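Researcher: Next sequence.
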Amino acid sequence: MPAFNTEKYISESIQSVSAQTYQRWELIIVDDGSTDGTAEIARWFAASDSRIRCLFQMNQRQAKARNVGNKQAEGELVAFLDSDDLWMREKLELQVRALQENVADLVFSDGFIFQDNNVVDESSTHSTPVGGFDGAEMVATLMPVNRIPMSSVLMRRRVLEEVGGFDESPRYHGCEDYDLWLTIARRGYRFYGMGEWLVRYRVHSGSTSRQTAAMLRSEVAVVEKHQRHTEEDRQRLRYLRRLAAHATLDQYFLAVRSGQFGRALPIFHEALGLSPLTVCRPRRIGAVIKQAMLAAITRNKERRRNA
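Model: Next structure:
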């Protein structure tokens, strides 16, 4: 369980592990440099249950935290739970059985998606694929979109070690799970999708355009890394690049309007690199130039006023 500034939610997440009907588990919480009460809450739970351990690292993001936790794990199986998500009570019991009965290397399940604290909302699901998949089938299933929720996965730890764990490169931040599933699939391991809803996945309403843009750029990087050079993959990559360019341009406009001119130009260059045709459409490039000129005029007026 990687944890960063989730003091509002981590208690519920830990309790969802403690409540499992399958009790042969260990929970390794890796605090990723939290600045709120996350670490104190985790330590309190660890003091009351010897199966819970707390580790600390300076803020290095989730991929590093998950790799650190896996190196400390003692079991043959490893599962992942984000510190704001919840497991259903039978999650581990059903998945351990499914892993054995289907001779799989990795099992995953569907789950409910809820907003903020509306935990009982079951109106939205991930709609994950069901059944057994060999590596090639899983690559074909995943390339159009990541359909494996991180907190729903249970896998053999040797598989994670054999593929080198999560890629910690900043290029994949936020999509390191998507990259890992594709890496495992390309190595030919067997997947099994369960039809049960075994996870409650929390979505925060405070998502920003910066987070959206960063996630899209990471998704572009993952698809570039794993694309099979089919026309379908090329079309998806072009589509993702356009989406990422749009979201990155939104960051540019926000930076300009807030007077962060030093940040604005590199952001614009990044958007241009993602999809030149998207950025250079006449109306869009006109808006970019207009915002830059208005910002320059405003800045000059402020300088004269303060002179």
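Model: The chain has twelve helices and nine strands. Residues 209-306 form one domain.
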